[in-house]
Amino acid sequence: MASGSFKRAPVTGGAAPRHNVLDSLRATQIVGSKPVLPAELIAQILDYLSIPDLLRFARTSRRMCEMVYDDTRWVSRLKAMGLWNDVEARRRAEEVRRRQMEIQKAREPEEEARRLGIVQGQSEAGVLGVGNAQRAGTTLFDAGWEEDRRRQSLEKAKAAQPPLETGFDAMTLSHVAAPNSATPRDPALALKAMMQVRSIRGYARQEYGKVYGAMAPFYFDLARAQSHTDPILFRTYREPEQQASMLASLKVFARSDIAMGWESREEKLESMMGIFENAALREFEQGYGAGDVDGRMRRYAHVLVVLNGGAAAVDAFIQSHALFSESGGLGMLLDCIQSVSPGHGGAGVRLEPAHDYFRRLASSLNEQGAVIDRVFPPSVNVLTPFIERVAEDIISEYITTLFDEAHERSLEAYLKVVPGVFEAAAKFSRSIQPSKASPPDFSNQVAHLVASKAFEQHIDLYLQEELDFFKRASDGEVTAWEKRLDDEQQSTESFLMSNVSRQAAKRDFLTSFRKVVMMPVSVLPTPFAGSAKPASSPNPNLATTSGGEVLSAPSSRPSTPALPERSSSPNPPVSELPTTELAAKAAIMASRLEGIRSLFSIEVALNIIHAAKSSLDRAALFVKFPITQAAGEAREQCEIIFVELLNQLGGRHIRPGFDKAVEHLSHYNPRKLKEHGGNQGQVAPLVTFLELVNVGDLIQQMVDVFYVQEMVAPKLVDRDDFLAAANKEKKRFEQMLDERVAAGLNKGIDVLMEEVEFIAATTQSATDFNPGAAGAVDVKSDAVVDVGPTETATRIVELVSSHTGMLVGSTDKNMLDVFNQEVGLRLFTALCKHLKRQRISVEGAIKLISDTNAYYSYIATLRNKSLTQYFAALRELSQIYLISSKHAKEIATIIADQDRYYGIFRAEEVYEFAERRADWYLVKRDVERAMYGIGCGVM
Amino acid sequence: MANDEYDQRHPRDAYAVVLIGDSGVGKSNLLSRFTRNEFNLDSKSTIGVEFATRSIQVDNKTIKAQIWDTAGQERYRAITSAYYRGAVGALLVYDISKHQTFENVTRWLKELRDHADSNIVIMLVGNKSDLRHLRAVPTQDAKEFASENVLSFIETSALDATNVELAFQNILTDIYRIVSSKALDQGESSQNPIGERRTLEISKPADPENKGGKCC
Q1: Measured by CB atoms within 10 angstroms of the end CB, which terminus of chain A is less buried, N or C?
Q2: How far is the C-alpha of A838 from the C-alpha of A880, rounded, in Å?
């Protein structure tokens, strides 16, 4: 509509002026000089005209009128005052368009009807005509309809008041009544003029006109006034509220004043407002002084708020508040540290006074909140700046002194006070009731304020101290333990856990451990809750007692021996006095090997983890710190603590232990120990090493539980963030453990196989597989009756299975599979080697088959398919010896049958085994002839 | 070998019994049921041979049975014949739910006759009698076959332990009676069944020679 015509203007700019000029300025046209200023320039000039001049200018010509009346000009003025709402305007415009569309649609059938020439009765024709008239009216006057609606709503709104612009409708576009009228209209109406402006496209001028009509008289009068008593404004309005609101409106109106001299007018307005504000403020303060909360304070607070948001009033209110002058009365500052009983060795800290302090502060603040609600209108947020001030002045001062004092006294006290007080402060910020004017995230804001004003400065130091403290504590723990270990080196002790189900014991242990980890470190003894829990229970005590419980509860848990207490129970084999030098050496060796389990201890790990937990719990409080940067730092610090924990546990505690253990293992010599009658059926150092693996695995699981509980659950670390330092370190820790275990197992397998070979070499008698060889021909057949495996096989199976069984549940399944596979293969090799040393008769074959069956059934329990196949091949192989010498030729076929041995033995290998037959030299010729043909048989 | 002395004192009371029959008829489970009272539903096929012993009472005498559980799928005669060597009894097992296994009984019997001691006591055992609904071999047929070939016959189920004990008891009793009567007949009190096996071995060299002739 209007904007459309404006857009067209520049396009038709060439034609339109010429047309006009032809009418009025024919002479100039003839001369051929420039006809008129370009439209842009005129528009620019128009901007500087005052409203009356502008309208006068509009009268000069139709084009000028169009230019002046151009809607954008007025919209921009309304916008300057902040009274134009684009969304509303668009909505209205769309509504209009929609109605037009509807009418269009409605008209179509009628037109069709008319085209068809169906003329109904007289009355119908009349109706039609009326309809047409209405349609025409609406299309033409949809703006007018808008006006009607506006008028109606205005009437409703103002109830008794007649519409402001009575004769003002779409048809009288050119009559702008308001701007010129010098006399102020109804003063009450003028106050509301601003609020009634609506955004209608094409009617911005009219809307502005109304505002101008209401405001201009006061405005220009004010600008001319000499003193503050002069302006009609103060004479028209008597009430300070009205005056304030009018002044505020004028201030807004002044922004649309872009005509010449606006600076001075605005300045004048400002100074008037200043004078008014001061007067009002004085009244407010007097009211404050007199304690007249609901009377003068409230009234002038409202006045000031209406005038300019009430910042001055808020300032005055906060500035002169009693809380800041009497802060000492809230609580004794150093109660927290001073009232510590000396028995706690300076570590105990009472936080109750701090809680009391904050409680009192909160209650007095809440009282103030109520007062603020009464004094200030709900549009002004007074409480937030007030609390900001409180945090800055009172709390900050309080905690700074407190922290300094605590830090001087002892580090531990400091470490406990800081998070404790922070927690108390957090509670405090939560306990403050929001006032009516507070934003929805009030408590967040409060927390943020308290944190930033009071705590931010302390956080860095605290986190650093926390880390240092933990480092020192864990370091001390490990060092002390190492020292103890050195002292204990001589005494031996052993607790074999072979009879205990490791998995059950471990699960048992881990559940209790998990419980302990989940238990919150009570930095805060029931803050604000008021329950009578003793506040002086310091968390390390708590932690260690529960840790102790954990260790003592499953009495079956042998784990690592607590060194000092149990040294009274020496290892039985060692208790015999070593008589010979060799025995003495063996005893020392045994004691060293027994010591493997003392290479690291669960207790130490537990203690370190507990220290880490308490440090972490305290530091983690600050992750909720409302300031993101500090929270990030706290988070980082938590990660560092965790990393440090892993370093201490892994690098300083577990790794040396494993390394030492592996070294011991490699020194192991079964022959030496065997003579002394060591543990039957078990390789002592391997057992201890496997125990070590168990303990290591336990510690790793502890770390894992700890990680999940302390790092992942409180969202300190994202489990999937592979770049996070904590995750990386944890990986490294696990890797380290795995490597050590693998290395140890490798050594362990060596040792185990040595033992197997040792048993095989020492216990297998020549008559086992060759009963006839001993010369007792009569006896040989009887041996068959006893078909069980030989003692050697029984012992080997026992030995190996007891060691593989020990690992079940202590390492992960893959590791176990690899270990079993390795053990199985090595056992297989050892057995083949052993077999090739024997001589086997047909009768002895039954024994041998029994043996291989025994090995096979043991291997089958490992559930390793390829391994099972090896031993199945061995079983097949052992049947060679069962064949009587009569079938020598078929022996050759059986040797050559590749499928029979699952591809594990080649024919040459089987042949080698076949050579171990007791009657080999009887059958050799036949076998070879069958295998290589007659020609080769000569060989 | 601590047991040797014991065995030496009662040499004639140990008897070797061999379990034969097609693969999968349940030989191993019969054995485990008899010696350990165990049953394994998903047992694998036996590799080679397995041994087990159990003592039972026959005519108020304790005799020791050494049972060889053989692989049904063994292809080499040299090895199967090794199984029969020295056996004084054989349980020829078939699966009552698989007719083929019953048909193969003839083949097994032939092998026994060829390689084992001619005095061997053979019992035909129809295993898996619990699978009544799947029965493929009528009891009557089996009975007739048994009487034709002079075998004793029994139907067992290793799964529900029906007749397992009885089967072993019967065959061992038969063996015991035959052996002791033979011992009496021959008057060779010192000879034991396993000794017989030895004689058998010695008496058999003709066989491989024949075979050797054939092969070459």
Answers
A1: C
A2: 14
Strands B49-58 and B89-95: unpaired
Residue pair B38/B12 in contact (Cβ under 8 Å)? The answer is no
pLDDT in tens, A762-805: 888 888 888 765 554 444 344 445 677 888 888 888 888 888 88
Runs of H (alpha helix) within chain B: 2-9, 27-35, 77-84, 99-103, 105-115, 139-148, 164-186, 193-203, 206-215
User: End of a domain among A440, A462, A490?
Assistant: A440
Does the CB of A713 have a partner CB in chain B at under 8 Å?
Answer: no
Residue A301 has pLDDT above 90, yes or no: no
State yes or no: pLDDT of A229 exceeds 60: yes
Mean pLDDT score across all residues of chain B: 81
The pLDDT assigned to B2 comes to: 40
The amino acid at residue A711 is M
CATH architecture, range B14-184: 3-Layer(aba) Sandwich (3.40)
Say whether both A656 and A550 belong to one domain: yes
CB-based contact A846 B51, cutoff 8 Å: yes
Residue A13: is its pLDDT beyond 60?
no
Contacts of B205 in chain A (CB under 8 A): 886
pLDDT at A515: 61
Predicted confidence at residue A26, as pLDDT, reads 55
Q: Which of A716, A746, A763 is the last residue of a domain?
A: A763
- Residues of chain B with C-beta less than 8 angstroms from the C-beta of A905: none
Domain residue ranges in chain B: 14-184
Q: How far apart are CA B127 and CA B109, in angstroms?
A: 17
Quote ipTM for the complex.
Answer: 0.80
The phi, psi pair for B203, rounded to 5°, reads -80, -10
Closest residue in B to A790 (Cα) is B1
Phi, psi of A905 (to 5 degrees): -105, 135
Look over chain A and give the mean of its residue pLDDT values, rounded to a whole number.
69
A368 lies in the same domain as A419: yes
List the domain range (segments joined by +) for residue A414.
321-440
Q: Is the pLDDT of residue B192 over 70?
A: no
The answer to whether residue A149 scores a pLDDT higher than 60 is: no
Give the separation between CA B193 and CA A36, rounded to whole angstroms.
144
Q: Which of A75-79, A436-440, A718-722 has the highest mean pLDDT?
A: A75-79
Q: Which two tokens stand for residue A604?
A: 């130490």
Q: Tally the domains of chain A.
A: 3
What residue of B is the nearest CA neighbor of A891? B78
Residue A540 lies in a domain: yes
Is the domain of A529 the same as that of A556?
Answer: yes
Pair A421, A467 in one domain: no
Judged on CB neighbours under 10 Å (0-12, 13-18, 19+), A543 is buried
Contacts of B192 in chain A (CB under 8 A): 781
- Per-residue buried b or exposed e for B120-151, using 16+ beta carbons within 10 Å of the residue's own CB: bbbbbbbbbbbeeeeeebeeeebeebbeeeeb
Same domain, A476 and A508: yes
Q: Which of A886, A898, A917 would you mutate first to test chain B, the one with the most B CBs within 10 A?
A: A886
Does residue A14 lie within any of the structural domains?
no
For residues A489 and A429, state if they share a domain. no
User: Is residue A655 in some structural domain?
Assistant: yes
Residues of B in contact with A788 (CB under 8 A): 53
Residue entry with tokens 């008319």:
A114
| Overall average pLDDT of the A318-337 stretch | 56
Of residues B213 and A665, the one with the higher pLDDT is: A665
State the amino acid at position B70 in one-letter form: T
**Do A435 and A468 share a domain, yes or no?**
no
Give the burial string for A245-284 (b: 16+ CB within 10 Å, else e): bbbbbbbbbbebbeeeebeebbebbeebbeebbeebbebb
Q: What percentage of chain A has pLDDT greater than the value 90? A: 3
Q: What is the pLDDT of residues A555-602, one digit of tens each?
A: 333 333 333 333 333 333 333 343 444 455 545 544 544 555 566 666
